[in-house]
Amino acid sequence: MIEFGYSLQSNRQIDFDLNDRRMLKYVRKNEPSIDWCMSCGTCASGCTAGATSDFSLRRMILMTRRGEEDELKTNIFRCRFCGKCINACPRGVNTRNVIYWMQQAVKNINAL
Amino acid sequence: MKFDYFVLPFTLGLVFLFIYLGITYARWFMQLDKPDRKAIGKGFFSLKLFSAVREIILESLLHRKIFRKNLLLGFMHMSLAFGWFLLIFIGNIEDRVYEPQTLNPPYVPIFFRFFNTTVHPFPFHNFFSVLMDLILLLVLAGIVLAWGKRIRSRAYGMRRTTKLSLGDKFAMVSLWFVFPLRLLAESFTHAVYGGGEFLTGTVGNLLGSFLPASALFYPAWWAYSLSLGVFFLALPFSRYMHIPTEVVLILSRHFGLKEKKEHTPLTDVEVHSCSRCGICIDTCQLAFAGGIKHVQSAYQLRAIRYQHINPAEHLNCMMCGRCENVCPVGINIKDVRLISRNKLNGYPIDKNEFVRPTVKPVKTDVIYFGGCMTHQTPAIKKSMTKILRSAGVNYWFMDEQGGICCGRPSILTGHTEQAEAIMNSNVQIIRQSGAKIMVTSCPICYKVFKQDYNLDIDVLHHSQYINQLLADGKLNVKAMGSNAVYHDPCELSRDIRVYEEPRNILEKIVRLVPSTYEKDNSLCCGGSLANLSISLEKRLEITQDALDKLTVQKPDLLITSCPQCKKTFEKASGIPVRDLAEIVASAMSATDKSAEKSIRQKKHLQASEQY
Asked: Residue B485, SS3?
């Protein structure tokens, strides 16, 4: 490869060491079924809170895995706990408890 | 004045107990809000006091509710509570009759036989001796039964008893010692000084024949006094706090105090009134079907009282209300648990941001509200629209597009502020629609619309509304001739007790098979929205157990009137599970169908005219 001394794109490698895993570990400890999620999005498709806001459990779980605290903070409290997602989930994730512990994780982020 | 040093442990314990109780109750009273304090003040001078005293005698002393559960268990509680009360009461009368002139300190009637070893004859002297012996025998029988219950609780109708904490065990053992020690002390006294009746006299003679009674009788009185003193010291910090607090609870209940949404002194009273008798444990489905034995109300009320709540255990409750139904003290367990859940989970929110109304109100007579769960069981909403149409009802399907929550799940999980935001937004829509009646298919929604919204319109569950339609002749159904068992959903059973309407409808269509688990004793399907932390496997175990119990008589159909129950049962049931609305819709006669057709045409015409 010819070295031009510069490249078109900046470094696109993800630094996995920067990933904040505190929340995921905390939720996983209290509700292990979060790991069963395969991000299919069935939960979000019928979601009552999702009808009026950007709330999506699929995305919330993704954000927890990535350690994106800020987005989690703005969205996770929109859940109504109506329980449609738990009936819908094909993987048997205990979705409401996952959301509950995500809320706790966001609330106590400094103590994790 | 009569005095001996051995009375000191008893007297000091008693003084401590009264000071502690006085301060605690006074503090709770001062923390009450003004209307409640007024209600209590008024209550003491009203007729309510008599009904309260009646309940105190029947429940706190005679333990009527426990008698109903099990004779032996009832007798054990009654003999301890009522027997002890009689010992004190009759003892005091005896003392009054014996020395009407002198005012004795409270320990004299308790240690009557010590201070009056040789009594000069007084009115009914023999009668009192025999009576006191008889009462002591009653209490001792209770103690022996209590020992027996520790060994074999099954004989008392209890599969499991509460696992007690160390403090409770300490207080319990000191209580076990009190009455046998009294027997010993009195018997030794009679062995030395003579006298005594069939119990204390006989035991005295027997013990005196081989033991040095004159050397033992004084230490025995010391031991008796000590055991009482220790018990009084331990009482306020152990489960025995329920003895005085239950009286306070019964009084405040009769004076009209109610649980509020936040923690009030009444909550404290309820929590302290729990005796951890463990009757709630056997009735809990988590215990008998799911094998989860450490989360029941006795334990959670204890956790609330001593403030060591474990969230995962605390949220492991289906709020089905089976425990509240059997609680002999009548504690509002569900309310107390919701209050503590709110403390645990609550957080402030931006109310405007949280709720954005998705529908515009439509002018109508009847609002039909499906609810989230109904949208997951489309057969129910289809049946309901069919029924409403063929009955010619001018209705508006409020949440046809979904996206409206009633707020009950938020309440159940302790998010009261969110629930209020949701409810306020829904109230606006309902008011603006000008409807007179609101019909909902989901008992969860039904409960919250009926009890928490304070709507000035009729809120009906669809079973009630269909029953009305049938009674008014707007709907006709044919018998189908299959055997069916009806499952009472939690909210329609112990909460609001809608028992007759669904059965009324079903009797017209199917042959109803009776079940032991119906009405107040109905089971939870396991799909309860109140339980956050239960695992799906345990949930399934509970569902399976409930199904097995309901279908003992091998019916062809399982009918319920809750979409969530239907959804949950469907996963595990061997027989078809149907909602009441589906049954009615499929049993509607042909004339109704033509009526429906004409209405549909009419609507179509109207629509095209408008267009």
From this structure: strand
H or E element at residue B193: helix B166-193
Residues 6+ apart with CB under 8 A from B602: none
Strands (E), B474-597: 483-487, 511-513, 557-560, 577-579
User: Which of B583, B555, B559, B403 lies closest to B478 in space, CA to CA?
Assistant: B583
Which amino acid does the sequence have at B90? I
Please give the helix or strand (H or E) that residue B229 lies within, else none: helix B213-234
Nearest to A52 among B347, B403, B413 (CB): B403
Hey, what are B406's tokens? 């009633």
CA distance linking residue B501 with residue B468, whole number of Å: 9
Model pLDDT for residues B28-79, shown as the tens digit of each residue: 999 999 999 999 999 999 999 999 999 999 999 999 999 999 999 999 999 9
Beta carbons within 10 angstroms of residue B258's beta carbon: 12
Closest CA to B559 of B510, B519, B598: B510
- The total number of residues written for chain A in this structure: 112
Contact residues on chain A for B312, CB-CB shorter than 8 A: 30
Tell me what the pLDDT averaged over chain B comes to.
91
Q: Give me the helices (H) in B349-414, please.
A: 351-354, 372-376, 378-390, 408-412
> Is-contact B240 B234, C-beta < 8 A?
yes
In B276-394, the DSSP E strands lie at 366-369
ipTM reported for the complex surpasses 0.90: no
What would the pLDDT profile of B157-169 be if each residue is shown by its tens digit?
A: 898 889 999 999 9
| pLDDT confidence of residue A28 | 95
Question: Tens of pLDDT along B294-333?
Answer: 999 999 999 999 999 999 999 999 999 999 999 999 999 9
Q: Which amino acid is at B546?
A: A
Neighbours of A92 (CB within 10 A): 14
Amino acid found at B476: N
Which pLDDT does position B181 carry in this prediction? 96
Q: What percent of chain B has pLDDT over 70?
A: 96
Contact list, A72 vs chain B (CB under 8 Å)? none
| Sequence-ordered strand ranges (E) for B100-158 | none
CA distance B122 to B477: 80
**Rounded mean pLDDT, B14-37:** 96
Give the Cα separation of B268 and B246 in Å (integer).
11
B358–chain A nearest CA distance, Å? 7
Tokens, residue B7: 């009375």
Dihedral sign computed on CA atoms, order A93, A95, A97, A99: positive
Distance CA A22, CA B166 (A): 37
pLDDT at residue B403, as a whole number = 81
B125-151 vs B200-208: helix axis angle to the nearest 10? 80
Residue B535: name the closest of A102, A82, A97, A99 by CA. A97
The owner of tokens 């669904």 is B502
A-side interface with B, Cβ within 8 Å? 30-31, 33, 46, 48-49, 51-53, 77-78, 80-84, 87-88, 92, 94, 96-97, 100, 103-104, 107
Q: What percentage of chain A's residues is helix, strand, coil (to nearest 5)?
A: 60, 0, 40
Give per-residue pLDDT as tens, B111-125: 998 988 876 777 788
| Residue spans of alpha helices (H) in A1-112 | 22-30, 42-45, 57-66, 69-75, 84-88, 95-107
Burial of B262 (0-12, 13-18, 19+ CB in 10 A): exposed
The secondary structure of residue B189, as a DSSP letter, is H
CA distances from B316 to A107, B333, B540 (A): 21, 14, 15
